[in-house]
Fold this protein.
Amino acid sequence: MTDYLESLNEPQYQGVVNTEGACMLIAGAGSGKTRVLTFRIAQLIRNGVDPFNIMALTFTNKAAKEMRERIEKVVGHDARNLWMGTFHSVFSRILRAEAHHLGYTNNFTIYDTDDSKSLIRNIVKEMGLDDAIYKANTVYSRISAAKNTLISWQDYANNAELMADDAANMRPEISKIYRAYAQRCFKAGAMDFDDLLFNTDKLFKEHLEVLNKYQHRIHYVLVDEFQDTNLCQYYIIRKLAAVRQNICVVGDDAQSIYGFRGADISNILNFERDYPDLKVIKLEQNYRSTNTIVKAANSVIKKNRAQLPKNVWTENEDGNMIELIKAVSDNEEGKLVASSIFQEKMQHQLKFSDFAILYRTNSQSRAIEEALRRMNIKYKVVGGLSFYQRKEIKDLLAYMRFSINQSDEASFRRIINLPKRGIGDSSVDKVIVAANDHAITIWEVLENAQSFIGGRAATAIDDFVAMIKRFGVEVGRKDAYDAAFDIAKGSGLLRELYEDKTVEGLSRYENVQELLNAIKEFVDDPERQDKSLGAFLQEVSLITGQDEDKDKDPDKVTLMTIHMAKGLEFRNVYIVGLEEDLFPSQMMLSNRSELEEERRLFYVAITRAQKHLFLSYALTRYRFGRLKNCEPSRFLDDVDQSFIKVSTKFAGLESLPPPSQYAKNLVSGIKKTISSSPPPRAAGAQAYKASADFQPSDTSQLREGMKVEHPKFGFGRVTAMDSAGADRKAKINFDDFGEKTLLLNFAKLKIHA
């Protein structure tokens, strides 16, 4: 390999050759940080440092493998002797050698997440607790969060704030479950993933001779993606580097987006406090994106207060303006995005793999997927299943199918004990055997469970049969949405998902709500004659049939959440669903730090784009089965308006199959909406800034003709009121932003007259 130092710009060069002491590389998006970290390690080895004395920590095995391969190209096979890998893999290596100090054998078992949750379920059952309240996911997440902040089960039980929080959430026994879980793991000679970190810290804290051994063995510590570290990880690396102070961390505070997993941005923001002699090197030249995209991203992230100052720049061309796509509904948003991709591909001879669609939550993929299918655009969903292949969606669809067709054995097997109702696999097998032996249907066996099955299972089956019969009646007399909602609620599926407050549980709940939204959209289509649940299921079966995609063709549009997109790049990127309460998420608006993490997430999304960036939002979106008016995301105002143009690519919609009057009406509706909307603010114009004494008024007193102030739209006058119950709306003509309809439950308005 040619001399790698010659290929570096000046800050990169400084980051590679200044190998001694504490160093922080603040690496802007697309600035080549992995390259610098790789060459820094190679430089250490070239300078005579034994690879056995270098520890390099990453967050993924893939990153570690790629880095090791790059280093090998420079220094040869010596790179294989590095302490290189993920935090968990490197620290488990230490624990394998030292676990006896903590009372474990050196061949301890490592429990994966499923093992841990299974043990928690057993403990909950043994303690006689309600597993509907003490869900394994919820309890596991709580214990994991405690370990990541170095809180042992003893500390947890003595922490008044944690105990009060558990009591307020109706789970006062979590501390006892944590204690039992920790003791059972120890007794079984097992550690879970969090223990690999927690016990390494404990080992170094309680056995100073062991810490001293590794402090003198590890001369250099390097950490990639430092902004994603949690408290436990930081404490360990700080202890390891305490003797020689040769610690190099690489990261970008503007890309710290994993707070929900325990990442602590204060580690990178306050790093200099722990290392007063810290050398800070800023990698600010972006090699990935156009100048327009880089400057737009900068204009967004500068709105955050908690950040390390830097000025990312590029020598790349200005490139295309950022295009803003405005749709009437979420369904139309999908169609417009699909149409835009098709047009861009044809006009510029691109591949589908040049495109990525990024969204805040997995549930948003449904409308996008359906639009892409209708245009025969191949796609892949990264980091998750296609919408209709997700477990919670299949579960609810199975309930719907069985409510219509009680001979459906596959659906029966899926739902008979979901949620759990005391009907085990052996009882299910008895039902199938009885049906076969007597040449009758499964349903006939179920209706006569006392005769065929007997025992407690028969009573539970009787309740199940009564429920399905009730659903069958509802299906016969209600439209698809009302029947589906009754099934989702009556089956207990909706409640079970709602009560799971983990990140995964919230995502599953949102997915089920999105399925109900799809059914509501189906019912609300004015051209549909048959609005029954059976008609909807027939249509869905055609969609899910196409999901069984065995095609290995790599030329596909990529769909993923923004969290999954971190570290990736694409020629053309679409960021969809830029609406208040969706992005930023309504779950992340309780304080400034949460809002700033959402803004960093938007920054990450923007900086995935190389050549062309598209932003989109919908004026209406189905939420919880109701069509809601949407307000454009505040993040759209964060982008310097001189870099944005409103997209005019709506012609493609008219050619979207299948042609229908309904589609034509929607197309004309979009054009009418855009033509009647106020013109966008002039380039560089500033968003309205609320007065210093702005305090929202009680909008229950709002009346037509009143003058109001909005923190974003400024002053306006109420022209009409809709006083329909909880969804009260006000139509307001704003001086600078034109007429808008706001939901008063959410709108912040100060009444002036």
Observations:
- The chain has 31 helices and 21 strands.
